[in-house]
TrEMBL record, chain A:
Phylogenetic classification of the source organism: Bacteria, Bacillati, Actinomycetota, Actinomycetes, Streptosporangiales
Transmembrane segments annotated in the record for this chain: 103-124, 136-162, 174-193, 228-254, 274-300
Protein name, as recorded: Peptide/nickel transport system permease protein
Signal peptide positions on this chain: 1-25
Sorted UniProt keywords: Cell membrane, Membrane, Signal, Transmembrane, Transmembrane helix, Transport
Organism field: Sphaerisporangium krabiense
UniProtKB/TrEMBL annotation, chain B:
PANTHER family: D,D-DIPEPTIDE TRANSPORT ATP-BINDING PROTEIN DDPF-RELATED (PTHR43776:SF7), TRANSPORT ATP-BINDING PROTEIN (PTHR43776)
Record's keyword annotation contains ATP-binding: yes
The name this protein goes by in its record: Peptide/nickel transport system ATP-binding protein
Organism (species): Sphaerisporangium krabiense
SUPFAM superfamilies hit by this protein: P-loop containing nucleoside triphosphate hydrolases
Keyword annotations from UniProtKB, A to Z: ATP-binding, Nucleotide-binding, Transport
A GO biological-process term: transmembrane transport
Cited SMART domains: AAA
Entry-linked InterPro entries: AAA+_ATPase, ABC_transp_ATP-bind, ABC_transporter-like_ATP-bd, ABC_transporter-like_CS, Oligopep_ABC_C, P-loop_NTPase
Keyword Nucleotide-binding included in the entry's annotation: yes
From TrEMBL, chain D:
Family: Belongs to the binding-protein-dependent transport system permease family.
Family annotation (Gene3D superfamilies): MetI-like (1.10.3720.10)
Location within or outside the cell: Cell membrane
Protein name (Swiss-Prot/TrEMBL): Peptide/nickel transport system permease protein
Lineage: Bacteria, Bacillati, Actinomycetota, Actinomycetes, Streptosporangiales
UniProt GO BP: transmembrane transport
GO CC annotations, alphabetized: plasma membrane
């Protein structure tokens, strides 16, 4: 177990390093001058300001030197200074992590919850209820999330004034963004769960469980839903990615502070320290999620425990 | 308890059951016998309202526990299942939820029907496991199904069917995967239950088992009852010719006339394999010559399947080595083994699990065949060799009977044209007549092509019929081995003696009193 | 400015939402308009500009300009203290102006605005003399903007690096304190109770009425409009023109509109290379674009079409150019034919010697509002109708600058706010090269225009300046260096409870006089 | 899944797949012969008729430049579907290959690939797409590649996870026993068993790709005006949503209809292939 943990930790560090390197490479290899990106197209900055910027951020040094400096700083936990904001990156990100985490976690919980509810509602029984629930699920997964967000705003905030349109204060402000982010995810998950339920419905152990007098609900709760949970676990990497990607649009539409918005502006203005810090954050999130996923596999499926083959 | 008249079950246009009448009263045992695919399992499932979505079920009369079940809704059915009628499914190996512990599976009926106070359930589970003859019940209760051998799983399944003390027990081939000692124990247990008032609907291909338990016997062919009556009469003096063929296919020695060759095709030395602290196989060696058959018998859980998988190169042994055709085998990486895979084939103990549920029978078999035209024709030929027909070619395994699936597995193994065949309970789900057909088929191959076999079976008479030498396993060890006649006539190890003594031989059936212990 | 009935009342909170959040909250560094708007509440200036272009005392009670126009002597108020308790004095002024030009500050706008600044001398604690390298008429205007606002010298000493972040460390002497900032969401200001030095242009004296001012950032138009519609915000900035009419009709809401002074949104035609090195080509393209109709359609009748490079609300605007270059597609065809673009290819575009009349417009989408892209698309279609293919080429910020600086384009388009006609110099003086921080997008080298602009900057005679700038405008129109498109208005939706939100000369909202009615 | 008690099996004709098929046919026509569905030119502006509501002349109304929304939806289908489906196919194919190799290739290969994927996943899709477009230039094809490549890691992870389970199944073992080469096992047994979730992701991915493409357009890296594309229409349409719903709603409905239809048809095909009635 200890060796396992050590190996995973090492792999995690390697992933972080690679992510940071990649970000550095990508943004430095892009055509165009970083200083121009920092200044923006409409600034009336004289050339000496540009020179000063280049000098301050060491942009005139050879790339390997810049890279080494960047990595050395990262290793000591120093994320550097944002080009765009002129602030330490840690400060730029500090108050943004919370809102994004809040949004992502609530959307994740909501989507998984909704998906299982939908599967429960439609599972087993045929008929109208199932068809309607299935249709709603289908609709949910088909609607582009930011379009959904804007329509939701139009209806709930502007038309009826039920929910605040923007910001991140209080749980009310979280309702619409979380739903917007969660619904399409829930649609996909519900479909996956339904499919898996279908596949597993033929298994002999399901017949046996029925023969014991288990009702549909018990069957789902005690038997089939766990099997259906496996692909959901498999999808958690995707869920994480979708949440991060979705956060960018959702945060923009609902004017929530958060990492997604920071990312958009940072990429747009080629704020390398911020982008690579964000990549580190996102890589770290994936490393953690993958670890959890692998553990979840082991918890859910005992067959994998024995073979010990799961990474 | 159960009374059915005119039961008809159709799968699409095919009527699997056509107008069957039967009754099972309290404390009474009705045995359903019949060839593979005759509709036995379908009847069993229909009596629980579980014939499946593709099935249409109709009956003139269907009474369960005195109530008309024809207009039962789901709720009413649920009250019946597990409580009034317990069910042991034929597919014992796949009938336990792989994600749940054995104890949870066994406890489930008690929880559903609230037949035991929550506090006592744990103790009852252990008690039940003990009663069905599972050693170390406490340890086993905490394990997952994949950690159990086939026989252990079957016993766990029986325990779960009995957990809520049902009024009637429907047992579909309850002893297929059990060695004779354990089988005897299960039969005793069922007899006890029957004496305590439990009705029993027993489905079995094995006349000996039927003879031990049944009051009455119904003989099924193509979904119809061709003969029924008191067990003694039907088994002792069958009237219908079909019944006679079912019962009279006496196993004969199929080894005669073809002495084994001299070439050693498969050799295992000092094989050992442990799962955690449990040694599944310890220090087993064997040499198999072309044209030779080694029978493997032994206690359930003694490591037979594990040995088979090691021989196949599917599981890497912790100790020892397997050589195929004199060349290294178990020590090779899979990539190097692959070209020679066709030389050695396995008939899985759990055929159902070894089929990709998405493929049709035709494609399952074709997979074993060399690429090229005529694969389908060859697949059909193989199917016919095991007694199936073109109609089965495009079905998916789910829609086959237990015995049919087993035969597909055999056809697939033969399709590769192996020189060595490892059979793990290849005929456990087959009635005697089809058993005979399969065994003749294997004997023919052996005779003509020098096919060598490792033949694992719980059925001593079958083993005796096909094997040249026999190995007796217990707790992962070979406790006795030798020429088949020697071992069977003059067993030296006490376990072998118990085994032989417990065997419900055909000879015993004529005078086996149904109520005798 | 919008005023309601009743007497102003102290207390309460006003929420103002705008679209873009400044990266950098330090106006000495940032070029963003919004930085100026926000920090106006915190930083006072030496002088205040009035709507008529005259200057009123603020932190300076009076000033004298030397006859050569190269030194300005300011007499400062003696009763002013910064909100950190530091007294305001001549040294503070010097510290601020010196900071703006220091290379380490990396000022992206203020350093340009301050022009030929040379030094500041503390004559006595309350007198400061600023020396310029050459005469520079817009200097007072520059001083009046937030970009040259005065920080507490203590804040400059102790928190120079943190001023960009925006927060309590940004200390000035203004009517509000920047109490807190949540990045990506809002900045919160609280009243400076000691404030008693409002500029002469303000409507009242003493502290601001509002207890608290919240400035929120909602980039999405729909969200911002929705926020004011639902009452989550009291004032919404930058209304999309299309929604003005429907909002104006909503009970409880008013729409305030101010035409922005400065350079209007114009298409600058690259005069250094074909086809726009030919005057006829420029005039043809201009004649083919029906700016009146496009402006009306794109901005739902809210904005006016532009006739001059300057907005009508800018001092020195020349009204005589109005209607001198109407939409005349026939004229466009005639001019193009005259230039030899007589062929037509399969797509219907004009050709000459087998080459298509194809031109590109560069833009940076991240900095381009949707309305402008729509406008450009309409222009594209208008040009298509006379056989000219216009490609709208999007580029990211870093890629754009070098291409633009090189002049590898036919058209770029932009607008520039500000109440100073000297902006004309930034776009038409030959020295205002793009690569040097200028904005001569048409790459004009016109000695006549250069001379007029130089003379205008050197004199403080307002009438003379107006005359010179009018000449420049007429020449630009006559030569077709640019195609002025529309005059933007800053339009705000204001809920009834918000009163007396003011506008400065650049049409930027001011909150010193603002107040809110009781709930 | 309904246990057959005393019942007949239900044999309802599914209306969904038929409807969805019809939508896809209309779509195919829009892609191949847009002229059949509308007589108008999608790029011609008519400033005097800007933002006219849906009516006789313009069934879907006009946008802020007076262009016919129906024509734009019809002509936009080509670019949008190219990006949506192309990127999805690219992403799903690439991801499936990598995922299967990881699952079937043994521990070391799996570890290595997964760590690489961790890195790839850590790169925000937006950034990856930006970098790709920055190197290849803007335009439809490049957007397609950018969005597709950015989606690869996601598919790879999902496929690998599902494949791990299938690889350890009894039938995969049986195939090993038959000497079936790994690639064949993977193709014949593992792939069909992982196809479910990945197909589902792919069908949704079509919509998501259109949206990602539009996010790129939004950053100015997509198809340039006057190119007609649903994502751009969605982005532009939202500006006027409060005063004119039609320019923003119709392209959105088109995206939804496409994704729904693809999903329904895909599911139906899959069910048929497996011989069940679902
Ligand atoms: N994957 C596994 N994990 C843990 N224990 C296992 C595993 N596979 C087999 N065992 C254990 O190894 C022992 C031998 O099992 P095996 O399946 O070889 O028995 P068998 O002789 O084939 O029995 P049966 O006749 O009942 O099929 C059993 O105790 C079983 O529980
Ligand atoms: N779901 C199904 N769809 C179509 N045919 C089926 C289905 N299930 C069973 N059958 C067919 O119905 C017949 C009866 O099957 P059943 O399982 O009842 O046989 P059985 O008597 O139990 O045989 P075995 O002894 O081999 O288990 C067989 O021919 C089988 O192929
Ligand atoms: Mg059966
Ligand atoms: Mg076994
Ligand atoms: Ni048997």
């Amino acid at each position: 177990m200890l060796r396992f943990a050590a190996r995973r930790a090492l792999a995690g560090v390697a992933v972080l390093w690679a992510a940071a390197t990649l970000a550095f490479a990508a943004l430095h290899l892009l055509p165009g001058d970083v200083a121009d990106a920092v200044l923006g197209p409409n600034s009336g900055a004289p050339p000496q300001v540009r020179a000063q910027i280049r000098q301050d951020y060491g942009l005139d040094d050879p790339l390997p030197a810049q890279y080494l400096r960047h990595m050395a700083a990262l290793a000591t936990g120093d994320l550097g200074r944002s080009y765009q904001f002129g602030l330490p990156v840690s400060r730029v990100l500090a108050d943004q992590v919370g809102p994004t985490a809040e949004l992502a976690v609530s959307a994740a919980v909501l989507s998984v919850g909704l998906a299982f509810c939908a599967a429960l509602a439609t599972g087993g029984r045929g008929g109208a209820a199932s068809a309607i629930a299935g249709g709603i699920g289908l609709l949910a997964l088909s609607v582009p999330s930011y379009w959904l967000g804007i329509l939701g705003l139009a209806v709930f905030s502007f038309r009826f004034g039920l929910l605040p349109a923007a910001g991140a204060d209080g749980p009310q402000a979280l309702v619409l963004p979380a739903i917007t982010l969660a619904l399409p995810l829930a649609g996909v998950l519900a479909q996956v769960i339904r499919q898996q339920l279908h596949a597993i419905g033929d298994a002999p152990f399901v017949l046996t469980a029925r023969a014991r007098g288990a009702g549909e609900r018990r069957l789902l709760a005690r038997h089939t839903l766990r099997h259906a949970g496996l692909p959901v676990v498999t999808l958690s990497g995707w869920i994480t990615g979708a949440l991060m990607g979705g956060a960018v649009l959702t945060e923009t539409v609902f004017a929530r502070p958060g990492l997604g918005r920071v990312l958009v502006t940072a990429v747009g203005s080629r704020d390398i320290p911020v982008v690579s810090a964000l990549m580190l954050v996102s890589a770290a999130a994936f490393v953690v999620v993958n670890l959890l996923v692998d553990l979840a596999y082991l918890v859910i499926d005992p067959r994998l425990r024995a073979s010990g083959a799961v990474t | 308890m159960i009374r059915v008249e005119g039961l008809v079950v159709r799968f699409g246009d095919v009527a699997a059951v056509r107008g069957v009448d039967l009754t099972v009263g309290p404390g009474e045992c009705l045995a359903l016998i019949g060839e593979s695919g005759s509709g036995k399992s379908t009847i069993a499932r229909a009596l629980l309202g579980l014939a499946g979505a593709e099935a249409s079920v109709a009956a003139r009369r269907l009474e369960i526990g005195g109530r008309d079940a024809r207009d039962f809704d789901e709720r009413a059915w649920r009250a019946v299942r597990g409580r009034l009628v317990g069910f042991v499914a034929q597919d014992a190996l796949g009938s336990l939820d792989p994600l749940r512990r054995v104890r949870d599976e066994i406890a489930e009926p008690m929880l559903i029907h609230r037949t035991a106070p929550a506090g006592e359930i744990g103790a009852r589970v252990v008690d039940l496991l003990g009663r069905v003859g599972v050693p170390e019940p406490r340890v086993r209760a905490a394990q997952y199904p994949h950690e159990l051998s086939g026989g252990l799983r079957q016993r766990a399944l029986i325990a779960s069917a009995l957990a809520a003390e049902p009024g009637v027990l429907i047992a579909d081939e309850p002893t297929t995967a059990l060695d004779v000692t354990v089988q005897a124990r299960i039969l005793d247990l069922l007899a006890d239950a029957r004496r305590a008032g439990t009705g029993l609907l027993l489905i079995s291909h094995d006349p000996a088992v039927v003879a031990r338990l049944a009051d009455r016997v119904a003989v099924l062919r193509d979904g119809e009852v061709v003969e029924s009556g008191p067990a003694e009469r039907v088994l002792g003096a069958p009237e219908h010719p079909y019944t006679r063929t079912l019962l009279d296919a006496v196993p004969r020695a199929r080894t005669a006339g073809s002495p084994p060759g001299s070439r050693v095709v498969l050799e295992a030395t000092g094989i050992g394999k442990s799962y955690g602290a449990r040694a599944a196989v310890r220090d087993v060696s064997l040499r198999l010559r072309s044209g030779e058959t080694i029978g493997v018998v032994g206690e359930s859980g003694s490591g037979k399947s594990t040995l088979a998988r090691i021989l196949m190169g599917l599981v890497r042994p912790d100790a020892g080595e397997v050589r195929l055709d004199g060349a290294p085998w178990s020590a090779l990486p899979e990539r190097r083994r692959r070209p020679r895979r066709g030389r050695i084939q396995l008939v899985h103990q759990d055929p159902h699990g070894s089929f990709d549920p998405r493929l049709t029978v035709g494609r399952i078999i074709a997979e074993a065949l060399p690429r090229g035209p005529g694969r389908r024709a060859r697949a059909l030929e193989l199917l016919e060799m095991v007694g199936l027909s073109a109609g089965h070619l495009d079905r998916r395994p789910r829609r086959l009977s237990g015995g049919q699936r087993q035969r597909v597995a055999i056809a697939r193994a033969l399709g590769a044209g192996p020189g060595v065949l490892v059979c793990d309970e290849p005929v456990s789900a087959l009635d005697v007549s089809i058993q005979a057909q399969i065994l003749d088929l294997l004997a023919g191959l052996r005779h003509r092509l020098g096919l060598a076999m490792v033949f694992i079976s719980h059925d001593l008479s079958v083993v005796r019929g096909v094997s040249d030498t026999v190995m007796v396993m217990k707790d992962g060890r070979v406790v006795e081995e030798g020429p088949v006649a020697d071992v069977f006539e003059r067993p030296s190890h006490p376990y072998t003696r118990t085994l032989l003594a417990a065997s419900p031989t055909r000879a015993s059936r004529a005078h086996a009193a149904p109520h005798e212990r | 400015s919008g005023s309601g009935g009743g007497a102003p009342r102290a207390g309460g909170t006003l929420t103002f939402t705008t679209d873009i959040e400044p990266d950098v909250f330090d106006p000495h560094v940032s070029p963003a308009d919004i930085t100026g708007v926000i920090m106006r509440n915190v930083l006072d200036s030496l002088v205040a500009e009035d709507r008529d272009g005259s200057f009123k005392p603020w932190l300076a009670t009076s000033w004298k300009i030397s006859p050569d126009g190269r030194s300005y002597t300011f007499r400062l108020r003696e009763d002013v203290t910064f909100t950190d308790g530091t007294p305001f004095d001549a040294a503070a002024v010097k510290a601020n102006l010196d900071r703006v030009v220091a290379p380490a500050t990396k000022s992206r706008y203020a350093a340009v605005l301050i022009g030929p600044y040379q030094s500041a001398e503390v004559a006595d604690p309350h007198t400061v003399t600023v020396r310029l390298k050459r005469p520079y008429a817009p200097f007072l205007h520059a001083l009046s903007t937030t970009y040259l606002g005065i920080y507490s010298p203590k804040a400059l000493r102790e928190h120079a690096a943190d001023l960009a972040a925006g927060g309590p460390q940004n200390v000035g002497s203004g009517p509000f304190l920047l109490a807190s900032r949540v990045k990506g969401q809002q900045a919160v200001f609280t009243r400076n109770p000691a404030y008693d030095w409002a500029p002469g242009t303000a409507r009242h004296r003493g502290p601001a009425y509002l207890d608290k001012l919240v400035i929120g950032f909602l980039p999405e138009n729909a969200t911002r409009v929705g926020a004011v519609g639902s009452g989550q915000s009291d004032v919404a900035d930058f209304l999309p023109a299309g929604q003005v009419r429907s909002l104006a009709g909503r009970p409880g809401l008013r729409v305030l509109s101010h035409e922005s002074p400065g350079l209007v949104y114009s298409y600058y035609l690259n005069t250094e290379r074909p086809p726009f090195d030919r005057r006829e080509a420029r005039l043809a393209v201009r004649a083919a674009i029906d700016t009146a109709l496009i402006t009306k359609a794109v901005f739902a009748g809210q904005y006016r079409p532009a006739w001059s490079p300057l907005s009508p609300s800018t001092p020195a605007y020349d009204a005589t150019v109005e209607n001198t270059w109407p939409y005349r597609p026939g004229e466009a065809d005639r001019l193009l034919d005259g230039l030899g673009w007589t062929g037509r290819d399969t797509d219907g575009y004009r050709t000459k010697d087998g080459k298509r009349f194809a031109i590109t417009l560069l833009y940076v989408p991240a900095y381009t509002k949707a309305e402008r892209r729509t406008y450009d698309t309409a222009v594209q279609d208008a040009l298509r109708k006379v056989g000219v293919q216009l490609t709208l080429k999007p580029l990211d910020g870093a890629a754009y600058t070098p291409i633009r600086d090189r002049g590898d384009y036919d058209i770029i388009a932009f607008a520039w706010g500000g109440s100073e006609p000297d902006l004309l110099r930034t776009v038409f003086h030959s020295a205002s090269r793009l690569a040097d921080g200028g904005a001569n997008g048409a790459r004009v080298h016109d000695p006549e225009i250069d001379a007029w602009l130089d003379r205008a900057a050197a004199t403080t005679d307002r009438a003379a300046r107006a005359d010179l700038y009018a000449k420049v405008q007429r020449k630009v129109i006559a030569e077709g260096y640019s195609v002025p498109a529309f005059v933007a208005s800053r339009q705000l939706a204001v809920r009834d409870r918000a009163r007396d939100v003011g506008f400065d000369t650049s049409a930027w909202p001011l909150f010193y006089d603002a107040w809110v009615t009781g709930r | 899944m309904i246990p057959g008690a005393l019942t007949r099996p239900s044999r309802a004709r599914p209306a969904g797949p038929v409807l969805a098929g019809a939508v896809l046919v209309v779509l195919a026509v829009a892609v191949a012969f847009p002229g059949l569905l509308t007589g108008r030119d999608p790029v011609v502006t008519d400033l005097t008729a800007a933002l006219s509501p849906p009516g006789a002349g313009h069934p879907f109304g006009t946008d802020e430049l007076g262009r016919d929304v129906l024509a734009r939806v019809v002509y936009g289908a080509r670019t949008s579907l190219l990006i949506g489906i192309g990127a999805t196919v690219l992403g799903a194919l690439g991801g499936t290959v990598i995922g299967l190799v990881a699952a079937a290739g043994g521990r070391r290969v799996d570890q290595a690939l997964m760590r690489i994927l961790d890195v790839a996943l850590a790169v925000p899709e937006l950034l990856l797409a930006l970098v790709i477009v920055a190197f290849t230039g803007t335009g439809t094809a490049n957007v397609l590649v950018a969005v597709g490549v950015a989606a690869v890691p996601n598919y790879a992870r999902v496929v690998r996870g599902q494949a791990l389970v299938a690889v350890r199944s009894g039938y995969a073992e049986a195939a090993v026993g038959l000497g079936t080469p790994w690639p064949v096992i993977v193709l014949r047994h593992v792939l069909p068993n992982v196809a479910g979730p990945s197909l589902l992701l792919a069908t949704t991915g079509t919509g998501t790709s259109i949206i990602s493409g539009s996010a790129l357009s939004f950053l100015g890296l997509g198809p340039e005006p006057p190119a007609v594309e649903w994502g751009v229409m969605l982005a532009d349409g939202r500006e006027n949503l409060a005063v004119a719903w039609w320019p923003g709603v119709f392209p959105g409905v088109a995206v939804v209809a496409v994704v729904m239809s693809v999903t329904v048809v895909g599911r139906w095909l899959q069910a048929r292939a497996e011989g069940r009635t679902a």
